[in-house]
User: What shape does this take?
Amino acid sequence: MTKLILKRCFLPLFAIAEAASWAVAQTPVITSVSKISTQQYQTIVITGSGFGTHKAYTGDSDYISLEDQTAIPGWQAGYLPYNDTVTLIVQEWTNTKIVLGGFSGAWGTYNYTLAIGDSEQVEVWNAQTGDGPATVYTTIVAEATTATLTSSPNPSTDGEAVTFTASVTSKAGPPPDGETVSFMAGTIVLGTGPLSGGSAIFITSKLKVGTTPVTAVYGGDSDFGGSKSKPVKQVVQ
Assistant: This one.
């Protein structure tokens, strides 16, 4: 009798535990979304659980949506039932992580772009069961930039022309040509130079004898964030 009772209790408990585990696994939960910038092509990582699995694709599906809540007209990317013309580049989809390569389709038409400060709604459904969605909201940020500075010659002699070269880069590439980089000695602007292919040049022969720390400052724009280089200690002899 004892063995019979144990057998009858064990199987239902096992089945219940397995069913509970399966149910949890199928419910999508978003724990984090990496920063989303204004760029068309960018890496967006969504982490969590219960996403199911899906092969890589570019286009729409029933299982993911990124919707700009601020833009006029508003638009939604990636969600097939909405039938929007902006789509997603899905590079990886596992049960715990989705990696996007940005936006495709009609991006750039009819104001189908992102702006700094826009509210973006991210939704994910389980790709096998359709459970969900898990929903989070995030704010669009500027693409982060990095500025670096070099000088030549260094050291230089009194009255000799010194060339300062600034480089401004980002994961989305350099900011647009023609934007301005300021070359600073403390709070004093020594001069400026326009960006071309991510580089800007400033030439001067007016530095005083001694050591002058010079930095390059990029102010940013509606897509790219500003940045400041580490100082270059220019020695004039």
